[in-house]
Amino acid sequence: MSDSAKIPERQEFEATPLSPSNPSALGAAAESCLFLGEESETEEEIEMALRQATPRTKVAPAARIAEKKTKAPKKTKTAEPLPGAEGSRRSGRPPVNVVIPVDAEQVRHLIVERPEVLQADLSVHVDAEGIEVGAGFETEVGEIDLLARSAGGNWVVAMVVSNPAEQDTIVAGMIQRIGWVRKHLSEGQQEVRGVVLTGSMSDELVYAATALKDSVSFLGWRLSLGFESLAP
Prior knowledge:
By secondary structure, this protein is α/β, with parallel strands linked by helices. The chain is built from six helices and eight strands. It has helices at residues 33-52, 61-71, 85-91, 104-113, 167-184, 203-211, and strands spanning 96-100, 123-124, 135-137, 144-149, 155-160, 192-198, 216-220, 223-227.
């Protein structure tokens, strides 16, 4: 064999572990094309993966709350019916007041039995023995339908007009009866007032009421009957 065909002697190398903490261990191997090629291919794969990855956008808590409020349907508040309104709708009947004609005698009986309907503190006049004598009280100038006393001791002369024809004479008759009570029954500073009750008033009676308003009261009456639903 020639010298050129001689097999080169075997060289032994000591293996040094490759690790990031030992960069000097790379030595000449770091410059090999194979190592560099693998490193570049790995970097390209990582870069491509990063490009393809879709970043997730974080939604702030406030934005989530606002989105929920926007999507949530609005609740319409229904007005609650007022107490009694349901019963009115159920019956469908409007309130009705019926005026009932009242006889003068009925009014006269009412004020005798319930003098407080004219004035809160009125009571029927009684005599010295405590007997009620004020209903249909007789005087020299005519009968008084009701002679009553107030809690303060003042006198009230009440007259009921039985029919419209008496309106022409009721004013004169009332003045006479007030005068009689002042002269025969009233004592000291006791006042005497008159009350005229009538179902209707003429123009003449209205003028008389205006002139005598300081001593005589003119009252009209009306009795009405009302109906209301008993359903809850």
